[in-house]
Amino acid sequence: MVQAQTQTINIKKPVDIVFGTVKRDIHDIGKSMAISVMETYGFNVVDMGVNVAPEKFIEMIQQTGAPILCLTGLLTVSYDSMKATVRLLEEAGLHEFTTILIGGLVNDSVQNYVGSDYWVQDIQEACEICKAALLKNTRKNANIS
Ligand code: B12
């Protein structure tokens, strides 16, 4: 069974990217590498940790108004967690303002199943996508700025 994780989440405003390993998955090596590179590029990233429930991602997007959501998962069961997260974001009316990238052990079929905007392996390519997404999306839903 996957244990619940408790950790302090560091929020540097304005938040550009909310990033986490999805529910039931604890793989975090790729996530940590991606976050390091993204921060080097100048993005403010909130690291949600591992085994993150869909509701937690949505709460963080609502709280920060972050225009980009990055999900990682390496297990087959992670795809359902990614899909549930995307669905919840849509139900909250936030997908319109949020670009969703998935990474890890994913491909075209997984992206179609999950409903994300992109799937990426290459972190540099992800940074280019995030740059464009920052220009496109608004922070309309932010409770804080
Ligand atoms: C290391 C590892 C572990 C470590 C994880 C340590 C940690 N802190 O992360 C430990 C030993 C804990 C582990 C546990 C398990 N593992 Co494991 N693990 C791996 C292994 C060997 C390497 C994964 C890794 O870190 N790769 C290196 C990183 C750098 O690569 P990456 O994650 O792909 O990230 C890169 C890109 O994808 C990208 N990226 C990643 N995410 C994202 C997200 C975004 C948005 C972007 C832009 C980019 C991006 O950035 C990185 C740099 O390029 C893989 C095998 C493999 N070949 O992948 C198996 C693997 C993922 N594990 C597997 C399994 C089954 C498990 C266990 C269920 C085993 C068990 N029975 O307990 C548990 C799962 C526990 C859980 N609930 O999560 C299977 C999954 C099979 C499946 N399809 O479901 C794999 C594929 C092994 C296998 N061939 O069977 N595992």
From TrEMBL:
Enzyme Commission number, as recorded: 2.1.1.13
GO molecular function, one term: methionine synthase activity
A Pfam short name: B12-binding
Domain B12-binding: residue ranges: 14-145
SUPFAM superfamilies: Cobalamin (vitamin B12)-binding domain (SSF52242)
Top-rank EC class of the record's enzyme: transferase
Entry-linked InterPro entries: Cobalamin-bd, Cobalamin-bd_sf, Met_Synthase/Corrinoid
Record keywords: Cobalt, Metal-binding, Methyltransferase, Transferase
The keyword Transferase is assigned to this record: yes
Example GO BP: methylation
PANTHER family with a match to the protein in the record: METHIONINE SYNTHASE (PTHR45833:SF1)
The name this protein goes by in its record: Methionine synthase
Species of provenance: Sporomusa silvacetica DSM 10669
